[in-house]
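Notebook p. 47: complex prediction with adenosine-5'-triphosphate.
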Amino acid sequence: MIRFLLQGLLRDKSRSLLPVIVVTAGVMLTVWLHAYINGFMGDIIDTNARFSNGHLKVMSKAYADNMDEFPNDLALLDADSMTAVLGKEFPSVSWAQRIRFGGLLDAPDKNGETKAQGPVFGIGLDLLSPGSEEIERLNLKKSLRSGSLPREHFEALISDDFAKKLRVNPGDKVTLISSAMDGSVAIYNFVASGTVSFGSEVLDRGTIIADITDVREALNMPDASGEILGFFKGGYYDDELALSDAGSFNAVHKSAGEFAPVMRSLSQQGNMDQYVKLSSVYASYIAIIFMVAMSLVLWNAGLLGGLRRYGEIGLRLAMGEEKGHVYRTMLTESVVIGLTGSVTGTIIGLFFAWLLQKYGIDMSGIMKGTSIMIPSVVRAHITTPDFYLGFIPGLISTVTGTALSGIGIYKRQTARLFKELEV
Amino acid sequence: MENGLVIETKKLVKKFPVGKGEFIALNGIDLKIGKGEFAGLIGPSGSGKTTLLNIIGSLDMPSSGEAVVLDRPVSTLSSREAASLRKESIGFIFQSYNLLAVHTVFENVEFPLLLLNYNSADRRKMVNDALSWVGLSDKTRSKPPQLSGGECQRVAIARAMVKKPSLVLADEPTANLDAANSHNILTTMETLNRELGTTFLFATHDEKVISYLKRKIFLVDGRIDRDEVKQNQNGEK
Ligand SMILES: Nc1ncnc2c1ncn2[C@@H]1O[C@H](COP(=O)(O)OP(=O)(O)OP(=O)(O)O)[C@@H](O)[C@H]1O
Ligand SMILES: [Mg+2]
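Predicted complex, structure tokens below:
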């Protein structure tokens, strides 16, 4: 009997090969799309992480409370030794000191008179020490529009639009007016080595990027850093891991002082929390919508496959096969088809997702200048759900479709099945 | 069969819902068919022949009255019991052949035996016997789409006969056949009737079939109009 059913299944391509292909294609698309959305959304989070939040961020307690104003008077002192400690405690995270600051940038003319000035937002980070990952992290090389990256002290990058507004060219001097750590006015001269454009309104409006040692000098904060950013070496933000790292750090360093360090995960900073949630929700939404659509298609295929076979079923019933047996064999067949399609579809989908994860597609040619907020290299990111997600449309829908179409076996008199077959 | 009857219907009525009302397809059929009969239901289109065969074959349920088939009252059978009655005792021949297209002639004929759990040696012998009754021993490996209409119908007959059922129900078995093929098949069935004692009940309005019948039951509008038994003959027309 089993051999008989298998023969029927294998010989009737419209009963085996065709549905398997449909299921495979649907499952493959579902898996691939989910991994792709995940990668894309993850990249957007990651760009925010690279620029301002880190996957983890260590600050003084007081600084953390007013993080948006970057209160450098509350910066972490002895930041180098703190960084070394962090490196030991969290070996799978790479740590980078940053100072963020606000101020006014003044462009003087030949005579030293102000020719233009404007509010500026600054980032001090490690640009000069060999082996620094920060240039790569902020994608500075590709974002450079004119001039060069800073090669020595006093050199800084200015956002391209801002430089145009101030009529500053590479090699020109600019003066930063800000407030020092002790509250006094800080005035410091930089040479604009080049201009950058990140394709993000916030960043291109008026940003200065300089080496952190210069910024320390300018703001008179020796050996202090506003923030120490941590980045998972795996590359992807993992909220659970970040929360547990922050939790364990804070449990150890829970001394009450204002200046005691605290660690915050990306999701614990500003409204990034909502964004992290949103993006995972977003990925699932799209995956769910797609899964529902695929499910309908596969369900329909299962349904049609069943209806098409009323003739054969009617015949088998007339020969004295029991309804329950016919129904069970139909279901078993659809399980076999659903499983085969889901497994091959998942494998193929994962393979394509893996290709996209490993090699990525460089879109920077298409999206010139949009290197920060929208990632220029589109990559997939394979996560655990990708291994089982495809089975929902692939297996469950196929079987449900068959199950529903098969109810006709029970509902109709056998004689009716025959009528439908004969017409 | 306590009383030697294979089929006995008592005041059998079948109504079909049509729109808001109902249509009476069988209107009080009282019929007795004994073992080894070679009988036919004859009547114009719509007279209820197929409906009656379906009920006797336990593919459909009577609205009232009863059909007792091989001592089992059809209306009281569960779907499981009806299936087992069909599986063990009834062979169907349908107006359209209803062969499984992806299976070979051999496999099509073998199917009823699979349901009865015969072992493969027995199955092989029985299928080959059945195919030789209908003269298709050389086509065992063909698939239905490769056969002529007459050959398909003969496969269907072999399938109905292979398990040597007590009762064969044949609905317009010659509808798609030419005269030569029709006679061929009817002769085959006659032989099986004689040699195995199988009871045959036909539904037909084909003159060729009618001429072979030993008993003619005329149906008109769901009622038995006449019931003629051929006298003094031995299955020859
Ligand atoms: N499921 C059904 N619903 C409604 N009416 C039906 C149904 N099945 C049969 N009928 C009606 O019952 C009557 C008898 O049908 P049946 O199929 O038994 O006729 P028949 O004698 O076999 O005719 P034919 O020689 O054309 O095959 C017909 O008028 C038909 O329309
Ligand atoms: Mg009919």
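Notes: Residues B 49-50, 171, 203 surround magnesium ion (ligand 2) (CB under 6 Å). Residues 17-53 of chain A form the longest helix (37 residues).
Next step: compare against the earlier run before touching the bench.
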